[in-house]
Batch of 2 targets.
Target 1
Amino acid sequence: MAGMIKIIQFSDSHLFGDKEKRICGLDTFSTFKDVVKLAKKTNWPPDLILLTGDNSQDATEESYRRLSQVFSKSPAPVYCLPGNHDATPVMKSVLGKAKIKTDKTFSFGGWNFIFLDSNVPASPKGFLKNEELQFLSKALDEADDGPTLIGVHHQPYPVGSKWIDTMAVGNSKELWEILSSHENVKCVLFGHVHQEFDDFQSEIRVLGAPSTCFQFEPKKKNFALDAEPPGFRWLLLSSDGKIETGIKRLSQIPSELDLTTPGY
Ligand SMILES: [Fe+2]
């Protein structure tokens, strides 16, 4: 469709390098491939594929090689940003060879894309270092007037679950001061929360995605897995800044998912 970008967001695939490893009972490579297969049936071909972090669970080279296999024949450019389970240098090195891009800024179809690194070394918590905030300000100042999407792994403010909100971007006030002073910011897209999230901050759409493996139950004080199937988010971005979006999920939860898992 003219003037539209078709995007698929896959998030939190938590892949292992070792084929035998499981998390919450799941073979995350298998659920990832199933979710990509679903996207191929329903939303293919996209113009862009975005991976919003926790691409790997164990940060091994092999886990990133397995990720890259899935996109070896991708019809669209694939861009990825790091989550708290990723090791950015390893991710960049392996995915770079596979032509999965780790650029932090790019333009596509009249939109500007700016990806942030919200990771804190040796911690699952989100935070934007001063240099990251400065990078964001500069990227926004240098971008053209086109609509702009910000990608980040951690939720940019609390989503209503106490346990996971301890990991939200810790200095979100500073982040939103910058975003709200740039009228062309239309969307903040994130992962980490393993659940659908769709909200507005003034005119800015704020969107979280399900994981391609296990899901977290929304609005919970303590850790709880959700009996929702793995899935992905699709987006249609118009050149005038309008956004259509939705979630698609597998028809059922994987039978090996252990919903009693006390943590991960
Ligand atoms: Fe995750």
Target 2
Amino acid sequence: MVKKKFRYDVGILFISAVVLFVTGLGISQGTPQKKNPPFEIDRFIPVETCADCHSEIYEQWENSMHSLSHTDPIYNRVAKFLRQGLIDNDEIEEAESCVKCHTPVGFVSGFPTRLSDDLTKTPEIATRGIQCDYCHSATSVTKMYNNGLVLKPGHGEDDPGIKRGPRDDAQPDFHDAQYSKLHTESGICGTCHNVKHVVFGTDLETTYTEWENSPYNSPDPEKRVTCQGCHMYQRPGIPATGSTERPKNPGAATDYSDERPHIYTHYFVGANVAVPAMFGDEEKSNMARERLKNAATIDVDIDPADKKQIHVTVSNTGAGHSIPTGLGNLRQVWVEIIARDRGGKTTYEKGVLDAGSELPEDAWMFRTVLGDGKGNPVINIAKAREVLSDTRIKAGEQMRQTFDMGFVPRKGTTITARLLYRGAPQKLLKQIPGEPIEPQPVVEMAKAVRTF
Ligand code: HEC
Ligand code: HEC
Ligand code: HEC
Ligand code: HEC
Ligand code: HEC
């Protein structure tokens, strides 16, 4: 079985190489794949129909980042901002490519195929983002990046066709069902959670690859944890990370079918605290906080030989990929250090947000920096011709840094080190024209306190 998996990966690599070569030549940019001609939009079944029977799963999915992938205001405003003012055709191709993942039902049925299409004309069903009938019509994956899902949808509600999932004994009445190994593996997630620049091939997001190289991708079934093994076990109060229990979720897949020992949950919670709350869903925001608080640990020590020095160690104990993952050049994860004397006066600080909610340049940050091909950092992914650095914390690993306070702290001094997360830098959000965007909420992932 392990061997077979290996061969499959090699196959993907080969296909990736060919696709890269072809996109490199500038042949297949932006146009819908010829192999995968557009489907009529009415072949897809609205989420509300699935909700009629799968009501619990629907409620979990609603206001998840998958359900909001098309409407998410942060995505929309950032995407339009990055598109502005580009003149290089290769950069424009990338800046137009977003809808392939963010509005996937629209993309495969012919509208929108580009970001600058009039998105207000998006068919109603496609506005519902990454939805039930999209994932459950998938049959295979052609490449492990930029959404290589191959679909076989049914023909609408009159002839719903086969919905593919993890069960070999499901006997639904409305649609047919089929066991699909693909749905039980990380690859169904990985094909969208690895993002490459469509022309330059630069790695923009590498969540799947990070997981693939992590201890969670173990051949030992006892130790192996897929994306679903964490993200489709979470529910309120149960973060289900690498450092917590991941208890089964007994229940039924519909309002009337038999109980099973575990039903996969569909909250798809990552780290996004801001966006579900914009849609009034505090529960999903809180679940993102719970996930972030069970992802990492931090330690702080004063050097016994040289008391001016403090050592800080952060460990990725809970994530199946780097911290942060996804948009590593946008997400901000950093260490804040504050020393206070006995009277509460601050005597040393590092990584403290300023009055404008901006992070000082010298903060210890975990991130990727993308470059323009000449070694200069760029924030616009459309211009990213290279990855300049990757200082994120890999799954199961730790990083350590020493800070020189410049003085020996007085007795009674308290040193507090916190690992903090927020979705995007204020420096970027501030530049986006139109109604000002509030600074993204800061979440404390871990905290350590030492008294000298
Ligand atoms: C009329 C009720 C009904 C509707 C509507 C419905 N389903 Fe189902 N579905 C079921 C039942 C019953 C099962 C079997 C549950 C079990 O065996 O635990 C099921 C099972 C499934 C499975 C598991 C299949 C497997 O083999 O693992 C998937 C996936 C699924 N449905 C997706 C969908 C999607 C997507 C929609 C909307 C397009 C939908 N269902 C609409 C009743 C329905
Ligand atoms: C061992 C548990 C575990 C596994 C396995 C796992 N994750 Fe995560 N995931 C987490 C935790 C904990 C967080 C919150 C910390 C963070 O953002 O990295 C998270 C966060 C995320 C985020 C939000 C990223 C951010 O920082 O904004 C995404 C997206 C994500 N995971 C996708 C995936 C995908 C796709 C896979 C499989 C390739 C996967 N995860 C596997 C635990 C896991
Ligand atoms: C991002 C893709 C994705 C979306 C969107 C999605 N699902 Fe699923 N679903 C999955 C995967 C993957 C599994 C199986 C997980 C596994 O086996 O590890 C699953 C499992 C299921 C099951 C079987 C549950 C069980 O444990 O028996 C049902 C039923 C189902 N989904 C229905 C739905 C419905 C209804 C919606 C929309 C409200 C939906 N899904 C949206 C990917 C998705
Ligand atoms: C069709 C492409 C696609 C597939 C397939 C897919 N995702 Fe996603 N996923 C996305 C996009 C796009 C977003 C971000 C939407 C946004 O932030 O606007 C996202 C968001 C997420 C988030 C929330 C990230 C955050 O910062 O909070 C998690 C967690 C996640 N996906 C996990 C999964 C898992 C697990 C699977 C496999 C079962 C999966 N995804 C399959 C495209 C996909
Ligand atoms: C191959 C699939 C894919 C494509 C294409 C894609 N994205 Fe995403 N996008 C994702 C995934 C997966 C996430 C979630 C990762 C995370 O949470 O860090 C995401 C999240 C985002 C977010 C974060 C939203 C938030 O609420 O914090 C922004 C912004 C974004 N994408 C912008 C873009 C832009 C702009 C484009 C086109 C230039 C684009 N994406 C193209 C998969 C994709």
